[in-house]
Amino acid sequence: MDRRHLLSVAVCLLGLSTISLAQPSERFSTSPPKITKQSPSYFVVLPKQPVSIECEASGTPAPGYYWKKDGAVLSMTGLYSMDGGNLVVRRPSELTNGIYRCFANNTYGTAMSEKIEFVIAFADGFKDSESTTFTFDEGQLATIPCNQKESVPAPSVFWTDDANPGNKIPLDNRVSIDPDFNLRFSNIRVSDTGNYQCNVKNDKLRVQLLSPIKEIVVRSVENVEGRPATLVYTPPASVEAFRTEKLRLKCIAEGFPTPTITWNKEGETLPEDRTSYESYGQELVISDVVQTDVGSYKCTAENGAGTPTSFTTTVTVQSTPYWQNKPEDTNVVINDRGVLDCEAEGIPVPRVTWLVNGVPSTDIAPNPRRTITEGVGGGRVEIRDAITEDSAVFMCVATNEHGEIFASGFLNVESRPAEMTDAPKRNEITIEGKGFELTCAGQGSPKPVITWTFQNNPISDTDPKYSIVEDGNTASTTSTLTVSGVSIADGGDYKCVIENGFGSVMATSTVTVRRGTTIIVGPGDEVFVEEGLEVVIECEVDHDETLEPTVTWYRDTGAGQEQLDLSLPGGRFRRARTGSDSLKVLNTVVEDTGTYECRAVTSEDEASASTQLVVQTAPSAPSAPIVTQRSDVSDTMVALSWTSGGDGNARITEYIISFETNFDDLGWQVIDTVSAPSTQASLDLSPWVTYHFRVVAVNDIGQSPPSPLSESYSTNPAALTEAPENVKLDATDPGKMRVTWPEVHPYDQNGPEFKYIIKWREPGDQAWMGNEEIIEYEVTEYEIDVGEMYKELEVQVLYSNSLGPGPASDWSGFTGEGTPTQAPQNVEVNAEDSSTVVITWDEVPDSTVNGQLQSFLVYYSMIEVQAQGQSPAECFPNTDCRVQNLTPFQSYEFQVAVRNGQHVGPKSTPVTVKMPQGESGPVYELTAFPLSDRIVVKWGKPASPNGVITGYHLNISSYDNNNRLGNQTVVPISDAETTTYEVNPAEPDTNYYIVVHAVNGYGLGKFDTVEPKTRPAGAPVKPIVAESQIAPGKKYINVTFVQKDDGPAANQFYVQYKEANKEDAELKTTPPLDLLKGSMITVPDLQPGTEYLVTVVAANDDGETIGDEQTTKTIGGATQAASPIFVQGWFIVVLIVIVALLCILLVLCILKSQRGGKYNVSDKEQQRKGDIESTPLKDEGGFEEFEPRKDNPDGELPRGSQGSLRDSEPGSSDTDSLKEYADGELGKFNEEGSFIGQYGDKKQRPTEDTDQSGAAYSTFV
């Protein structure tokens, strides 16, 4: 066969296999029988009427049926016949009573129904046939027997009498029916006389039987004696309750009066949710019994006529069997394993046995593949290596002493390839955001498994996007895939795969997802607006480009939803913007409050969003308040009540209660604020006032209009109950005292004829020296004059009205004092230390104080300073008098004066004292300038020397990166004028710690520190010369050296130069300049208008480094053809003006430089404290600060000025070194002097002397 033929055969075989896979299997499924319907287990029927006992079963092939009665197979003749699976009983009688079971069988097993007890209904009537008379004395216990016979089904029993024929007699705790249906009276009454009958009603037979008449005759008793309660019916001493059923316990008592029955559980509380009481408390009912209901239950009867009586019954909980796990129908494939489990519970725990095809497991032939387990609580059937013949119906039977239960499950052994019975739609279209369902169904044996894929990727129902729900039976299954919240990415091919161990089939559905219509900017939950304003409710719609939405607005303000017309001319509802779907509401009113919905509708879907628009306004006015008196004792205690108006759609937060009175000057006054929702208040009013009240409601928008006024309410006068407070007694002139008190407005006077009463007397006196009455309530002070200075008085102030004076307010004070007449004598002042003095004087006679001695005032001032303005020190009697914080080494003048409570006496004779020397302040502006091998330290004299400075003390040490100090060097300087020190040599690239003290007669002063770091060792880094560092003049060039911030530092530099355009030009060199003395070299004697090559050479002890060559040109050149500018008139005028201005400037500078002693040093120090740290080091003049000033060759500072304070002011400069080159371009540079400021590490310590006045004159020593 050639290759083409082989290919054709292969294609045909493949097609056939595909067709067979897609076609349903022609093999029918098989299964053992299963009972699907049967009559109830207790089946009561009417006699002689044909009845059918139901039985239906499923199974493949269809099962056949047969019945057993009392264990014997029924013959279908005579009384019985079959109708399908149902058993027809043609003429039920007592002969047909019994236990029936239905059996359904086919090739694969036999199923058996549960037991059905078949009973004929009957009612036998009563045991007695004659009427009976029962005679009782009034108040006795009476029991009337029913004497009913048996009835099936259980009848309903009740009693009737001839007073109300046909109606049940009313029952209560006196008249009751016991569980044996006897009628009981706990104490019979004469009114109970009559004819009674017991009624037995059989609903199945539809008959009601009446007992013979029970006549009750009650003899009247004149006085019925009380009889204690006695229990005449109780439950057994031990009662079994059954799980999930109801527990009923009943007690009936007799006695007079009628007893009441109560129930309780000993040691526990009764379960409230399951406990109820019937028969007027006689019967305790506990529903849905659980194990915890075991225990002792006690009923107690009492009627107040004696000791209560009780009875206790013990309850145990039992249970008929119930299922924990029933066997389930199981399909297995050949050679597979099948298991049926059965578990049951009960009290006691039931025993589980198995029936196989209706036959006890002990009576069937053994099967090596089958294992049956039976026992207490559970059992199992297990089949291994199953074959078709192992198919059977297994019934699990659970039995205990209270009953038995049955449950069946079959084990079906079959094999069938998976096949598809329902495929998903080939094409599905949905909208983004929605969901779709795909359903796929199949069958096979074993039961097939359905899986889903999307774009060939498995789908798991653990993904929240997907939900897979399966349904079916033992042989078929249906799987529904639900995809929720779909997006565009969810479009594609979804495949359903159905498979079991014998085959698989597949179907594909293509899903197209269109973008859904959504509201991407919604209106939100609530929108609030104040009435009268406009509001915009946002709505922005997003939709698929193929779908055009129509956006409509609806609202519901309470009368139903209505559509809004946004195109109505002049309407209040319109679109917020052109092309916008948002809604704008103009001139909102409260009636606009409601639900607003934005709805976008397309041909495929719709979207909507809604919000609650709340238009808010101020509340409506409350009703007029009603005033009622709260107390009969006092008419000032009232209650106010009102009714709220509308809240304006904003919750009312409070009510403001105000009042007006007959006193016009008070106007409206707020008396109380009440938090909503309360609409009442309790008020305490003032006597002798007429009131009107009003109420204002408040919400977040504002206040309501005031309510209408209440009716007027007047209070009666009352006695004053409060003593005056805040009374002040002030001593005024000698011998006088002013009494002041708060004004009492008429509102608070409690009645007419109001006045103030002021009384005074000496302490200890019974009689008052004075008594003053003031009737003008605006007058609130009175001056008492007793003519005696510093006289103690007792003062009493009272309020009084027409009902008499109120309680008194008692106070005491002194009259005015005079001025002390004598200054302290023999004042002595002794220095205790450099800043403290002790002052003493003779005792001052009391007669000269003219009042109460309070203290002594010490006046002191520095002698050298005028108008210091210090406050005097204050010393108190019987204590040492010290004045502290004085400036050391200064002369002070002291005076002492006496002070009483009001006046200060004359000062004593001045006493002068000179303070000893004290600790000096820190040196001024301590600064360090480090190079690679040396450090220059500079400072100024202390601003607060506090004595005569005799020298300085330096402590110099290095430290490493861990802050560990190395060797220390102590340098004493005995010359007070030496304020620099050079550390030479110094270690390169090393941190130093330098401490400097000033020294005076006291010793070492306060220290200051500086921490410089030297530059690394080695030849200097290559100098960089920028254009700004070279400044040519007419016959010179200024070259400024700028030290780099890192690397080895230069100690000096020099300049090499020659003419640029002469080949044989000589290379010249300037003398080197020490960089500690300056940073600019002037190259002299050059030709005007000539180009020069300039090179800067940096040097130190380790070598030299040559910088790059620079070209520059001096100023000047060829003679101009025009007239020289200096001969033109306008130039001469300008030159004269410039010279005049320079002269004025020079005079001002000279005057400023001579201001040294004309300002307060401490003021200057205070000014410097804030900015001294930020002041840059002076860049000009090298280290000229170390040199004596030209106007002070001895190096002394001018008196009254600080060390180099003037020279260090920002913006100052010294241009002496440029004077001879004034015709150059000097404005280009500002670094004529030393570059030391580039490396300076200076620290300024503020003066620590706390006495400003002392510090201010610390330089005048």
TrEMBL record:
Name the residue ranges with Basic and acidic residues bias: 1161-1197, 1216-1231
Where in or outside the cell it occurs: the entry states: Cell membrane; Membrane
Q: Which UniProt keywords apply?
A: Cell adhesion, Cell membrane, Disulfide bond, Glycoprotein, Immunoglobulin domain, Membrane, Repeat, Signal, Transmembrane, Transmembrane helix
The residues that cross the membrane are: 1129-1151
What Gene3D superfamilies does its record include?
Immunoglobulins
- The Ig-like domain covers 33-117, 138-208, 228-316, 321-412, 417-512, 517-614
Name recorded for this polypeptide: Neuronal cell adhesion molecule-like isoform X3
Pfam family, any one: fn3
Return the GO cellular component terms, semicolon-separated.
axon; plasma membrane
What processes in GO biological process is this protein linked to?
axon guidance; brain development
Annotated signal sequence range:
1-22
Q: How does it sit in the membrane?
A: Single-pass type I membrane protein
Q: Where is this region: Disordered?
A: 1160-1261
Q: Which domain of life is it from?
A: Eukaryota
Q: Give the source species.
A: Acanthaster planci
Any one GO molecular function term: cell-cell adhesion mediator activity
Location (main, coarse) = membrane
